[in-house]
Amino acid sequence: MSHTVTVAKDRILVGAMVGPSKPTPQASFLKRATVIPLLLIALLCSLSYSLGLWQNRRAAADAGGAGTTNLQCTHYTPTQINATALDFSSHHSAAAAVTDFVRTYPPCAAKYTEYTPCEDARRSLKFKRDRLIYRERHCPGKGDLLKCRVPAPHGYRTPFKWPASRDLVWYANVPHKELTVEKAGQNWIRYEGDRFRFPGGGTMFPNGADAYIDDIGKLINLADGSIRTAIDTGCGVASWGAYLLSRDILTVSFAPRDTHEAQVQFALERGVPALIGVLASKRLPYPSRAFDMAHCSRCLIPWGQYDGVYLMEVDRVLRPGGYWILSGPPIRWKKYWRGWERTREDLNGEQTAIENVAKSLCWKKLVEQGDIAIWQKPTNHLECKAHRKITQNPPFCPAQDPDKAWYTNIETCLTPLPEVSSNQEIAGGKLAKWPQRLNSIPPRISRGTVEGVTYEIFQQDSQLWKRRVSYYRTVNNQLGQAGRYRNLLDMNAYLGGFAAALVKDPVWVMNVVPAEVKINTLGAIYERGLIGTYQNWCEAMSTYPRTYDLIHSDSVFTLYNNRCEMEDILLEMDRILRPEGSIIIRDDVDILVKVKRITDGLNWDSQIVDHEDGPLNREKLLFAVKLYWTAPASSGQGGSTTS
Question: Percent of the chain, pLDDT > 70?
Answer without folding.
Answer: 81
